Amino acid sequence: MSDTLDDRVLELCQRDSRYVRNAYLFVLEALDFTLNEVETRRDRHVGGRELLEGIRDLAKARFGLLAKEVFNQWGIRSTEDFGQVVFNLVSEGLLQRRPQDSIHDFADGYDFEREFERDYKAPVPWAELHPGHLASPQWPDSDGEPLQDA
Length: 150
What we know:
By secondary structure, the chain is mostly helical. It contains seven helices and no strands.
């Protein structure tokens, strides 16, 4: 048995060639991301549904509108695939599960096209910088002055 995380993940990829290395590493990163979001909880266990939320949020932040395409390149076509990746990591001893944890927790989590394309809302930096102002910048006129409302 290999010692490094990367070696163990590569062994998983050889055993289950549906998913590439980055799929496994992203799930581990998303678990860490999710744990950081719930760090104030006494019970730091993350269930399947909660992990799917963390995966979705991290994917939106990291890949934006390309998230679905990135996942497709990794062999991930649905939330059920994330369940397979998680349980492959469990079988390799890289994650632990509780008796109530089930691969079915990942079934029908969300639709990738809806979450990452159709209903995707890109963050708007100027809304954060200027709360209460218009959701779009004021473009100057030809003299360089801000446009005035008529």
